[in-house]
Amino acid sequence: MKPNKLYKFIVTMILISIVALIGCEGDQGPAGPAGDDGSSISEYTYVGDKGEACSHCHASTVEQVALTGHSQAYDIDPEDLENPYCVQCHTTGWDRPVSYGSDDWMTATNPDVNGFDDYFGVEGDEAAERRAALEGVQCESCHGPMGPDFNNHRPDLNFATMGTHDPENIVADDIISDCYPCHKTQFEGPSGDFTGGYATSAHASVAGGDVDAFNQEHYAHIGSCQGCHTSEGFIAANDPAFTDYNFSNNVNFIGCVTCHDPHMGDGGEGNPAQLRTVGNVVLSYTFPYEPDDPEAPTMSGYGSGQLCANCHKGRRDNANVAGQIANGYAYFGPHHSSQTDMYIGYGSYEIDGQTYDRSHTHQNAEHACVNCHMVRETELHGSVQEVAFHNFRPEIGTNCTGCHEEGFSDTDVDAFQGTIEDLMDSLATRFGFTDYHDMEENWDSTDEAVTVWEREAAYAMFFIIGDGSLGVHNPDYATDLLNAAISHYDDND
């Protein structure tokens, strides 16, 4: 076919195809429903409904949250449901704080008009429906309201508990945790004066309570240290959801969400008190075992106390300790906080030929650390209740008398700790120091004049110093360590 004819043929076929596609004009069909542009999911600021809208992307989290105590928070005494002082912490979106026995909230300016407080005591079907949608502590209680414009919602995430503060003069404004409005007892202590709560704990007072100074500490941004020294590090190490999360460059003190997982409760796959982890903890230094030995000393089965063991343990491995003994080390002894090691009666360098009693009745405590450092009975809201004191300071009169004879007091504890200090002083004077404090400050294990056997004898004292209880965590093991060290020195001197 010639080019001109080919061209005409192609044009003709295209025109025929266009006509065929256009066809005849028919009747216009009915208009379809207006499409949702995705800009709004609710006419309300607080959506509620147990996180149903969140489950589209966070289904497993919403399912787990439904099994926590927060989701069941509205299941309280019917009389309490009539009391706004109670209801404010058992619902979602209540933003006008209620003082005990007062109606001051009713005249307060409410930042939002779609929270539970805005429907409390209100007649009508809509108010009843809204109250039902906002029962319990839901996603928006911590992450902020997600309506009406879902696309503009960015969930609040707060890994902080305390801002910069004076540990000797705590005020409410120092506390920046989302948990504080409803968990004041845990922060302030049952008496409300910050004597028994987290705010005055050592966890909250690192670097003098100065967050900026805390961020300048050497351990604040070292990966191997962050897992125990920062809130973000511990969460990343123990919560798979945050393993690859891009945290802020600024880290925070150990606080509420460090230890407690808001999303997982013991009603589901979580742990008692919604703790991050209660798994077994294997000691880093496993003398006389090897690190991979299945018989390596392990703290296990102590319930809530297992959480503490993750960080409160010595963190020198076998090679490190062997190096300390053979060659000396600038930071002699275990890494600070060897409480777990002392408690189960392992973890110190042990001298060949010496005997050590590892067990003690303190190991009978069901929750180990928690039994002595937190739980006690106290008067709260007009009745005696069992409360967890989050300043973690044991009280002899309440924490010890359950096992010790009536009349056991601080004096008895002081007397025992005095015997341990006497043994440490006895060991220190053998090395030529005035007492164990002098030795702690001036001991140099790298000095060429210091022998291997001297380092073997000295290790026990630094292990006991690292534990911090002066032997209380395991009196028998502490006593045996020091007696063995003294004997070893005398045998070699």
Give the gist of this structure:
By secondary structure, this protein is mainly α. The strands form 2 sheets. Strands 1-2 form a two-stranded antiparallel sheet.
Q: Helical stretch count?
A: 19
Order of helices and strands: HHHHHHHHHHEEHHHHEEHHHHH
Assign an overall shape: elongated
**Segments where pLDDT lies below 50 for 5+ residues?**
5-39
The radius of gyration is: 32 Å
Give the structural class. mainly alpha
Widest beta sheet: strand line-up: 1-2
The helix content, as a percent range, equals: 25-40%
Classify the beta-strand content into a percent band.
under 5%
Largest sheet: 2 strands, antiparallel
Task: Note the gap between the termini.
Answer: 116 Å
Instruction: Give a count of the beta strands, DSSP E runs of length 2 or more.
Output: 4
User: Overall mean pLDDT score?
Assistant: 89
Describe the structure.
The protein is mostly helical. Among the domains are: 49-152, no CATH class; 158-277, no CATH class. The protein contains 19 helices and four strands. The strands form two sheets. The protein has a two-stranded antiparallel ribbon. Strands 3-4 form a two-stranded antiparallel ribbon. A hairpin with a 2-residue loop joins strand 3 and strand 4 (383-388). The radius of gyration is 32 Å and the shape is elongated.
Characteristic key phrases:
two-stranded antiparallel ribbon; 4 strands; 493 residues; mainly alpha
